[in-house]
UniProtKB/TrEMBL annotation:
Protein purpose: Could possibly oxidize fatty acids using specific components.
Record-level Gene Ontology MF annotations: enoyl-CoA hydratase activity
Catalysed reactions, semicolon-separated: a 4-saturated-(3S)-3-hydroxyacyl-CoA = a (3E)-enoyl-CoA + H2O; a (3S)-3-hydroxyacyl-CoA = a (2E)-enoyl-CoA + H2O
Organism expressing this protein natively: Polynucleobacter yangtzensis
EC number: 4.2.1.17
Cited PANTHER family: ENOYL-COA HYDRATASE, MITOCHONDRIAL, ENOYL-COA HYDRATASE-RELATED
GO annotation terms (biological process): fatty acid beta-oxidation
Family: Belongs to the enoyl-CoA hydratase/isomerase family.
InterPro entries: ClpP/crotonase-like_dom_sf, Enoyl-CoA_hydra/iso, Enoyl-CoA_hydra_C
Protein name (record): enoyl-CoA hydratase
Enzyme's top EC category: lyase
Amino acid sequence: MSYKTILTEVDGKVATITLNRPEVLNALNDQLMEELGAALLAFDADDNIGCMIVTGSEKAFAAGADIASMAKYGLKDVYRDDFITRNWEEIKKVRKPVIAAVSGYALGGGCELAMMCDTIMAADNAKFAQPEVKLGIIPGAGGTQRLPRAVSKAKAMDLALTGRMMDAAEAERSGLVARIFPQADLLKEVKVIAKGIADMPLLTAIMVKESINTAYETTLSEGIHFERRLFHACFATNDQKEGMAAFMEKRPAKFTNS
Ligand code: CAA
């Protein structure tokens, strides 16, 4: 499939999707979000792929929703046509792990898109912000909901009320970012991590993702119950038999994703 606003690359079991509107710092318009959703779902359906990376350029992961498009919007465009929901949420349907590799600006919708991914790895030049307040809007792609869950209420309020930028070190300290790498090494390092994840038994990786994501949607006791049932289900997979046999026999496991 050919896309106009993203680039796709497959290396072994890892698919990398690069946001590619460099002239506007990867501002997220309808076309980009539709293409990103289509690419993610296509890789999710591809049995040869085990993990996906979403990344941008050295200067910008994404500088937010496309302000030039939004400036023209009226109530019909946003409410009747369900702006954001209409094409930003395909990523939530993806079962396999998705890593955001963030270099440069991840602002507004860019920060929110990174947070929709399963984990965020950042370059040392990364900058995160929810600057929507300066445009007379609030974050509309989950920023007021996912950010406090990631970094605390105090810091989410600080970021979303002032619109200030948070650098990579602060983002890692705050829990938004899992790991930081020198900018020049970011993609190489994230691909190594993604390959390691893609080599894990796929059903188990999907269960890990589903169970951790459930922690954000439910009570502790319901979440523990859900985890326990998935844990039990692992014992019906061939990969549990193989993983444990390989450990006992002191040999590498040969998973079959079954
Ligand atoms: N939408 C559309 N175009 C954008 C953009 C955006 N979010 N961000 C940058 N651009 C464009 C600029 O208009 C500029 O285009 P021209 O060359 O045609 O003028 C080009 O990208 C380069 O940008 P700058 O010249 O501004 O580059 P800079 O290095 O001086 O500044 C920046 C970089 C600090 C990221 C600055 O561009 C900026 O503040 N951008 C807007 C960030 C923002 O407010 N994002 C939130 C959007 S709202 C949102 O995302 C809502 C939501 O919750 C979904």
